[in-house]
Amino acid sequence: MTAVYITIDTEYSHSLASRKRPVSRAENFARSISCVTPDGPAGVEFKLGMFNRHGLKGVFFVDPMPALLYGVEAITDVVRPILEHGHDVQLHLHTEWLDQAGPRNPLGTRTGRNMRDFTFEEQCVLIDYAKHTLMAAGAPEPVAFRAGNYGANDDTLRALAEIGIKYDSSHCPGIANSECSISLCENYRRPYEHCGVIEVPIGCIEELGGGLRHAQITALSAWEMIAALKHAREENIANFTFVSHSFELLCRKRERVNKLVRRRFDKLCAGIEAMDGVYTATYADNPPVAIIAEEPRPVLPVNELRAGLRMAEQVVVNTLYGA
To answer: Phi first, then psi: what are they for 250, rounded to 5°?
Structure first.
C-alpha cells in the first residue's frame, strides 16, 4: 500500500496585506482561504468538501503568522472548518509577516523572507511562537512543519527537533533552484532522518531533458499525477506527497476560478478514490516512516506524450487564467 499525503499550504496573502493600500482581513480571507468567486468557492472549504465526497484525507499546513497583524481569531477561522471536517492541521510558517508585526514581533525588529535568514536561536523562537499560536487557534499540537517558500536550512530542522516537532516537509527535489537550503540533494526522495527530524520530501517525476518536476497541482497534469501514483504503487514505494495551496484553484489575481486546475484537482481525488493499493494518510494518524536505502527512490519516467500534453495545457491555463 502506498500512502498519499495531499498537503495544502494554507495561508493568508502577505502581498495583499503589505500593499500601500492593504486589503482588509476579510478580503484577504476571501481571496486566500475561502476563495469566493462569481463561479463559486474554490478554497479550503471547497477542498474539504471534495475530500469528503471521495473519502480522502488532507493535510493542511496552516500558517499562523498572520496573527501578528490580524490576531489569533484570524487563524481560528482557518483551523475550525478543517478540524470540523475531520482533516489534519500541521504547521506552516512564512517569516515575511514579521514586517507587519510592529511591537508584536517576537524577534523585536528582526525581519526576513525565509527561515534560513535567521539564526538557530531565532528560528527556535519563531517556531515556538507559531506552534503556540496555532494551538491557541484551536489546532492540536503539531507534529509536522513546512517552511514558507520551502526556505528552510539545517538549523530549521535542528530548531524543530528542539521544539519537539518530529517531521519536516520543506525539501523539494523537483525544484532545482528552490529557496530550500537543507543539505540534501535531489537524490534524497524518501523520508530520511536528518538533523534530528524526519525529512519528508515532496514528490516528483522525471521531466523532459532529464531533470525532475515537483508534484504540485499547478505543475503536473491529472494524467501525470495519477501515473505517478500508479508507478509508486508498482514500485512498492511507501508514500508520495503532493503539494497545493489554499488559493491554488484560482487565477493569479485570485478573483476567478481556474477551471482547468480545478478539474485537475477533481480528477486527482477521483483517481485516488478509484485506485487499489493507495490511500490518503495524515501526519496525525499515519505519519511517514524514515527509510534507509542506498539507491534514490525511483520516479515516474518521462513520457513525451504526457509531458507534451501538459505543456500544451499549461499554455491554455496561462492564456485563460494568467491574469
So the answer is: -105, 165
Query: 243 — phi, psi (to 5°)?
Result: -125, 140
- φ, ψ at 3 (rounded to 5°): -85, 130
What length is written for the chain? 323
C-alpha cell at 311: 505543456
Cα separation, 265 vs 277, in Å, equals 20
Per the CB < 8 A criterion, the answer to whether 227 and 303 are in contact is: yes
> What is the distance between the alpha carbons of residues 77 and 97, in angstroms, rounded to a whole number?
18
Q: Do the beta carbons of residue 78 and residue 10 sit within 8 Å?
A: yes
**One-letter amino acid of 175:** I
Whether 179 contacts 149, CB under 8 Å: yes
What residue type is 11 in one-letter code?
A: E
User: Cα–Cα distance between 133 and 176 in angstroms, integer?
Assistant: 33
Cβ burial of 40 (10 Å; 0-12, 13-18, 19+) is exposed
State the Cα–Cα distance between residues 8 and 244, nearest whole angstrom: 5
Question: Tens digits of per-residue pLDDT, 278-308?
Answer: 999 999 999 999 988 778 889 999 999 999 9
25-45, pLDDT tens digit by residue?
A: 999 999 999 998 988 889 999
**Alpha carbon of residue 132 to chain centroid:** 20
Do 168 and 199 contact (CB within 8 A), yes or no? yes
Q: How far apart are CA 277 and CA 275, in angstroms?
A: 6
Q: Which domains does the chain have, with CATH numbers?
A: 2-321 (3.20.20.370)
pLDDT tens digits for range 63-119: 999 999 999 999 999 999 999 999 999 999 999 999 999 999 999 999 999 999 999
Q: What is the pLDDT of residues 167-214, one digit of tens each?
A: 999 999 999 999 999 999 999 999 999 999 999 999 999 999 889 999
